[in-house]
Design goal:
This protein is α+β, with helices and mostly antiparallel strands and 232 residues long. The protein folds into two domains: 96 residues, Beta-grasp domain (Ubiquitin-like (UB roll)); 128 residues, Alpha-helical ferredoxin (Fumarate Reductase Iron-sulfur Protein, Chain B, domain 2). Helices cover 37% and strands 15% of the residues.
Length: 232
């Protein structure tokens, strides 16, 4: 199979370019296996991975123009493919991108807000199973940011500060469901562009976590926003 790979080292390259390599195809070979083969048999490629099982989020990139996780995305037939770094982020080198700006915003969102520390009785109290399931599902988010790369709003908006994007809204949803968090996460979601979302579902389509239903979270936050008169 012929594999067209994005290459760019800002230290020596004036512009990004593509190189095509021949890689032996085998049944269900993954994109990660392809990159490893090229790296070991053709020339060095800068890419990142760790868990090999959709948990760490480090190997998110583009396959034929669509976001995916290289570690578990198979190439099911012998065909030509194009592999590029995740769309919408500054490229450090080849497939290594700079996610720091949005990840810092998400980290601030996920910091639990409380007026006083948790006590043992809070920690050991039985949580409603339905609520625990919602929280557990959202904790599968690995911050791969595939959803951000697939979002037409965040990639076309001239002022990205107005919309934090799907990963940020999911982080807000996690704290909204959190019974120990005391911040107004509905107001925060509206301030971070909850209504900028066009509900296209691209985030669900590319998310490696089948447990997460982005549109359900957005809908529940919007429902609460409407109750508070924040949807105008």
């Amino acid at each position: 199979m012929n594999v067209k790979i994005y290459k760019f080292d800002p230290a020596i390259d004036a512009m990004p370019y593509y190189t095509t390599y021949n890689v032996p195809w085998k049944k269900n070979i993954t994109v990660l296996e392809i990159l490893v083969y090229v790296h070991e048999n053709h020339e060095a490629i800068a890419f990142d991975y760790s868990c090999r099982g959709r948990v760490c989020g480090r190997c998110a990139m583009m396959l034929d123009g669509e976001p995916m996780m290289a570690c578990y995305t198979p190439i099911k037939n012998d065909r030509d493919i194009v592999i590029e770094p995740l769309k919408g982020f500054p490229v450090i080198r080849d497939f290594i991108i700079d996610k720091s700006k949005i990840l810092e915003r998400i980290a601030k969102i996920e910091a639990r807000v409380r007026s006083k520390p948790l006590v043992q009785s809070d920690i050991t109290a039985v949580m409603d199973p339905a609520l625990a399931k919602k929280i557990g599902n959202l904790e599968w988010c690995c911050r791969c940011l595939s959803c951000v790369a697939a979002c037409p709003v965040i990639n076309e908006d001239k002022d990205p500060e107005k919309f934090i994007g799907p990963a940020g809204i999911i982080a807000l949803g996690l704290r909204y469901y959190d019974p120990f968090d005391e911040a107004d996460r509905v107001l925060e979601a509206v301030q971070n562009g909850l209504y900028a979302c066009i509900m296209c579902g691209n985030c669900n389509n590319v998310c490696p976590a089948a447990e997460i239903d982005h549109l359900e979270v957005y809908s529940e936050l919007r429902k609460e926003a409407q109750k508070k008169g924040l949807n105008t």
